[in-house]
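S.,

As promised, the NAP run. Input:
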Amino acid sequence: MTLQLTGTTALVTGASSGLGTAYATEFARRGADVVLVARREDRLRELADRLSSRYGVTATVIPADLAAAGAAAKLRADVEARGIHVHALVNNAGFGLHDAFLEADAERTAEMIDLNVNALVALTREFLPAMVAAGTGIVVNIASTGAFSPCPTMAVYGATKAFVLSFTEALAYEVHPKGVQVLAVCPGATATEFREVSGLHAERMTPDGSQTPDQVIATTFRALDGGKVGSVTSGGRNKLLQGLTRLAPRRTATAMAARILS
Ligand SMILES: NC(=O)c1ccc[n+]([C@@H]2O[C@H](COP(=O)([O-])OP(=O)(O)OC[C@H]3O[C@@H](n4cnc5c(N)ncnc54)[C@H](OP(=O)(O)O)[C@@H]3O)[C@@H](O)[C@H]2O)c1
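Predicted complex:
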């Protein structure tokens, strides 16, 4: 089955780059209007122009710093004021920090929790009630393979993604009977600006082993089209890693992650 998205609207956070740009593009390609959110307005406008001219959809740009206090409520108010009903919410905006916990900047660490965790929960809380009321909707939350085990040198990042995975799987269970499809996506290394932003220089996470954003989007939409709820992991190698992590003692899994991130 292919999801029918024509006439619906998808709101994608972090649409100015990487996976967010790719999610917005796929929703538009399938006929959905899109609301594009991130801080870099110039990039969002370029994408909006491209999507509306290529696919004939309405692309609305709302620049926002989602790590700021009250950002989620403000975004819903902005969206409502434009008369838009959000059918699909993609909580994709996020970043990592690759450093020993005590070496990482404390403010950036707090900002990461604000964005990866607090904004994701707040946005879900803002937009989910209307989906439940309509008896239909989609929430896609971007987790990571970093959610599968503790991540030495990315300790807080891994913990934010473990939160996203656990929260999303529980929420999926709660709201599936109400007609809303909730899915966590766990990508592994993917060729985006993520490595640069997070200062990730791990040799074992070479671009050769990375997926492309389009591969992650294809995994996501295969799962959505198939009616899957809960979570999905992108890529064979990442699924293998997930399986090994489940089987290994926690301490061994932690050591494996430390090796991958070293
Ligand atoms: N790439 C990977 O290897 C990988 C692996 C697993 C999971 N992920 C997850 O995938 C998601 C997307 O990351 P990506 O790989 O596409 O990285 P990316 O290319 O760096 O994109 C991150 C996006 O988040 C936005 N963003 C950052 N801070 C923001 C803020 N305060 N307010 C609003 N938007 C903000 C950025 O836009 P602005 O800078 O314009 O605000 C950008 O659009 C993240 O949640 C990441 O943790 C990535």
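Residues 9-261 form a domain with the Rossmann fold fold (CATH 3.40.50.720). Residues 13-14, 16-20, 38-40, 65-67, 92-96, 115, 142, 144, 187, 189-190, 192-194, 197 surround NAP (CB under 6 Å).

- D.
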